[in-house]
Design a protein that fits this description.
single chain; mainly alpha; 8 helices; elongated
Length: about 170
């Protein structure tokens, strides 16, 4: 078991996934999370202001930025998943985390295409795309919870306690 835990802490490729104890995946996920949360804020605001076109267009492009960021985060996250021994609770949690995030990303791609097809750049965001964004954010929250469980509960890609203790020595 100790060997499997150490395996889950080491990167498959430090150059691609980040060095030991400092993975790139948590850094990269801030892009889609921030973009998609901001897009929902823009969506809601577009329904309450005069001349909402700038918010509608801003939300559309925030969704696109989020999708691109999610693809980058997914590639690195996939490498992290490879480090987790199969058949373990951590691996199953990782698969669920990945599945939810892929579902969210597909949802946002569909949302982007829906908005482009609607061709209403000067009006508020439609209720359908707004609701799809809210559902996607709810799923993203669940995926984020599982990502936190991988790092903080199972210690995936987190430095071992001896390494962590270096930060608390005087």
């Amino acid at each position: 078991m100790a060997n499997e835990l150490q395996q889950a802490k080491r990167p498959v490729s430090a150059a691609l996934a980040g060095p030991y104890g400092h993975p790139f995946h948590p850094i990269l996920v801030t892009v889609p999370i921030g973009a998609w949360v901001a897009s929902v804020v823009f969506d809601i605001a577009s329904r309450f202001v005069a001349g909402p076109g700038f918010l509608t267009q801003g939300s559309l492009w925030l969704i696109a930025i989020g999708v691109l960021g999610a693809l980058a985060a997914a590639m690195v996250g996939f490498l992290d998943l490879f480090a987790i021994p199969t058949g373990t609770p951590a691996f199953r949690t990782g698969l669920t985390h990945m599945g939810l995030n892929l579902t969210v990303t597909v949802g946002y791609v569909a949302n982007f295409l829906w908005r482009r097809a609607a061709d209403t750049p000067d009006g508020p965001v439609g209720m359908g795309p707004l609701l799809l964004s809210v559902v996607c954010l709810a799923l993203l929250t669940a995926a984020g919870y599982l990502g936190g469980k991988l790092a903080y509960h199972y210690g995936v890609r987190v430095a071992d306690e001896a390494t962590q203790a270096d930060g608390f020595r005087r």
